[in-house]
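ok so for the tutorial part 2 we go from a plain amino acid sequence to predicted structure tokens. step 1 is just haveing the sequence, like this:
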Amino acid sequence: MKKIEKILIFKTGYAETLAEQTDSRVVSLGDVLRTTVLLNLYSDKSKFDVTWVTDEKAFPLLEKNDYIDRLLRLDWITMEQLKKERFDILINLEKVPGICVLADNISARIKLGFTFNPETRKAEPYDKAAEALLVSTDPEAKKQNNRLLQEILYDIIGEKWNGEEYILGYKPKTDIKFDVGLNNIAGQKWPTKSWSEENWKKLEIMLREKGISVDRQDTEENKNKGILTSLNCYMDWINSCKIIVSIDSLGVHLALALKKKTICLFGPTPSNEVYFYGLGKAILPDKSQDCIPCFKAVCDSERNCMRDIPVEKVYEEVIKMLNS
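step 2 — the prediction. this is what the tokens look like for a chain of 324 residues:
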């Protein structure tokens, strides 16, 4: 009988793969979901046994995933156990120094991703992750990067990405109810991604006047349903819409995972790192600014670039998608 290879993946979302390392413990759920493209490499259960370590907040994205055999929360009990286990391949996609140290102390035949440098006290790449670290630490390299996250993730593993999709374990419990869902709330890490409330209201009015059914993420009814506090409820809401209009956030990647047509508004973050799988379109500011994309959580420009995305432009794209 052929030996089943044991795979261990560290992805908590504390440090985004292509973003600068921080000491924040705020979880980037979108980055966790995007990493699930790697599970396509280990989908044959007769060959692979996959353990995934993450923050508990990301559990709803990974639970009931057919390709994850063990889903473990990142805590000291888990770490003590893993130190006593042996793996064939360890993939550490976190640049948080402490997680790198933990990964370094686990036995594995092959280690990929990031390791800890005791001299600099920072994360360093194993050879195949050098590009990911460069893009996340060098602002100029980040601006010039034209490669998708999926491509770079597969490079880290030493494989070639061929259009593999996200793998979401959760199965929504809703049917289509709305033509358009407005996913308008920015996450804690990136408040600069916000589009103004005035613009969201104007877009909603224009769509309703056209006889298009619209629902917003932040209505009182949706708040009462738990959409803002429960990932499962949030995924159910996204699944209830034909089209999602969103800022660059988790909602975009959930919509793509659920095969929804998607329009995404970009400003401080780059659109060329996001692949829409033939389902969506990126909309950028009409006015060019040297600082775009700035990758900053706080805008230090006189005019936030998101203000230069016209409502009319977004409206036209929605109409095109509804008619396609």
